[in-house]
From TrEMBL:
UniProt region (Disordered), positions on chain: 304-328
Gene3D superfamilies assigned to the protein according to its UniProt record, in alphabetical order: Carbon-nitrogen hydrolase (3.60.110.10)
Protein name: N-carbamoyl-D-amino-acid hydrolase
GO MF terms, alphabetically ordered: hydrolase activity
Source organism, top-level taxon: Bacteria
Annotated CN hydrolase domain residues: 5-278
Biased composition (Low complexity): 307-322
Classification of source organism: Bacteria, Pseudomonadati, Pseudomonadota, Alphaproteobacteria, Rhodospirillales
Length: 328
């Protein structure tokens, strides 16, 4: 059996601080048409796709901050994306900064949506793992202030049955956490979409800068393999307002293999015919959760947040060589 969903991963190159949304939407529409021409059922764009990645700057003027957020989806500037979806009969997912009024207050989330081939929003996800810091590190030219500008997502990790499969979403830093994929895997996710904005350099903790591309793929490949799901990772790439963002957008098979990968750090579409039934192999064997998971042994994962190493030195359970001389 085959259940093919042809996916386009639409990597975006840089977007300037003052570039209007209409210019970005134009680029996105061009890629959507190219995706349709390449036979895609679904196109996936990056995190915060509609503007520059503004959390790099410390800002205090709330009006300036809010200018990077969408108050409605679709709004007048994003409506053409939905209209083109409907016209072409293609699904899409993209990330944006969301401003909403909930529980009687204004709230800010780093959000992505899933839109089906009839241009209906069928899924929404608000980023849960917010990286960076909330304090002003003005000694660095570029900061990472997601903890200042966004609240932790309050919708959990959802999965939706749509477009012939079970689809999940997460956003950027979420991809580094095995819990993300496992919660989606436990809902039977067969294809996980995620966008990212990942700098090649973290000025306040540069120790792993040289491994940024490796870690990007490592976490998506392991998430795909361990949960037997397709993973579509899509970058905002290139030199954007002084931030050097990695590319490496890719489509990962349930085997953990990268089957398509971008080769530039500009607008670039990569596509692959994803057979969702491939995800079934390991869901029914190695990673047959019903047969092989042992949740009674996993309590710490939800009961505890920080690591708690043993307080005491280990005591011997047995001393088979008691009395013999140990080497210094
Ligand atoms: N956007 C995003 O989540 N980026 C982070 C980099 C954070 S650097 C402090 C990532 O995990 O790729």
């Amino acid at each position: 059996m085959t259940r093919i969903v042809t996916v386009g991963a639409a990597q975006l190159g840089p977007t300037g601080r003052h570039e209007p949304r209409s210019a970005v939407v134009k680029r996105m529409l061009e890629m959507m048409r190219a995706a349709k021409a390449a036979g895609c059922d679904l196109i996936v764009y990056p995190e915060v796709a509609l503007t520059t990645f503004f959390p790099r700057w410390w800002m205090e003027d709330q009006a300036e901050i809010d200018s990077f957020f969408e108050r409605e989806m679709p709004g007048p500037e994003t409506l053409p994306l939905f209209e083109e979806c409907l016209k072409l009969g293609i699904g899409m997912s993209f990330g944006y900064a969301e401003l909403t009024e909930e529980e009687g207050r204004i709230r800010h989330f780093n959000t992505s949506i899933l839109v089906d081939k009839k241009a209906r929003i069928v899924g929404k996800y608000r980023k849960i793992h917010l990286p960076g810091h909330a304090d002003n590190r003005s000694q660095f030219e570029l900061q990472h202030l997601e903890k200042r500008y966004f609240e932790t997502g309050n919708l959990g990790f959802g999965a939706w049955r749509t477009m012939g499969g079970v689809m999940g979403m997460c956003i950027c830093n979420d991809r580094r956490w095995p819990e993300t994929y496992r919660v989606l895997g436990l809902q039977g996710a067969e294809l996980i979409m995620l966008g990212y904005n990942t700098p090649t350099n973290i000025p306040w903790e540069p120790i792993y800068d040289h491994l940024t591309d490796f870690h990007n793929h490592l976490c998506m490949q392991s998430g795909a393999y361990q949960n037997s799901t397709w993973v579509v990772g899509v970058a905002k790439a290139g030199l954007e307002e002084g931030s050097d963002f990695i590319g490496g957008s890719c489509i990962v098979a349930p085997s953990g293999e990268i089957v398509a990968m971008a080769s530039t750090r500009a607008d670039e579409l990569i596509t692959f015919r994803c057979d969702l039934d491939l995800a079934r192999h390991n869901k029914e064997t190695m990673f047959n959760f019903a047969l092989n998971r042992e949740p009674q042994a996993y309590g710490r994962i939800v009961e505890q947040k920080a690591a708690e190493p043993p307080a005491e030195e280990a005591q011997p359970i047995a001393e088979p060589l008691a009395g013999k001389q140990a080497a210094e």
